[in-house]
Amino acid sequence: MTPPDINSPEEQARYRRGLEVLNAIDGGGAPAVMDSLGDIAPALAHHVVAFGFGDLYSRPALEPKQRQLVTLGILASLGGCEPELEVHIKTSLNVGLTPAEIVESFIHTAGYAGFPRAINAIAVAKKVFADRDLLPVT
């Protein structure tokens, strides 16, 4: 099977749509992730933007805050995704989630994925909140 041509007009349209969404919510962290993939896996960088944001994130059924809560819960539950979790905590703040809502999502995660995953997620959140002068969380 031939992989899709990421330079085709259709793929470029998906990419542009995804980049629009990403730029509206990201706050600047995602380009570094995409750039880090450029010299080894440009197709992966393309699909993260085109599929992840152009197709999935732009679906109308959920608001950005709801999407981010789902994303935070999944990344915290998976574990080992701390760099991605950091990007999405920042994005969550950018779309209007409060630090307390983010912390609550990780407390809720503990019941389903375990305390170690929740504690790891809280540690990442604490770093982001400290960088943005959002501590203490009340």
Supply database-style keywords.
single chain; 138 residues; mainly alpha; 4-carboxymuconolactone decarboxylase activity; 4-carboxymuconolactone decarboxylase
Supply the CATH class of the largest domain: Mainly Alpha
CATH architecture of the largest domain: Up-down Bundle
Number of helices: 7
| Derived structural class | mainly alpha
What's the alpha carbon Rg, rounded to whole Å?
Answer: 16 Å
CATH homologous superfamily of the largest domain - what is it? AhpD-like
Kindly state the mean pLDDT as a whole number?
A: 91
What is the general shape?
elongated
Strand-residue proportion: under 5%
What is the helix content?
A: over 70%
Distance between the termini: 53 Å
Number of domains: 2
By CATH, the topology of the largest domain is AhpD-like
Write the H/E string, N to C: HHHHHHH
Compose a concise summary of this entry:
With 138 residues, the protein is mainly alpha-helical. It has helices at residues 9-25, 30-38, 42-57, 64-78, 82-94, 99-113, 115-131.
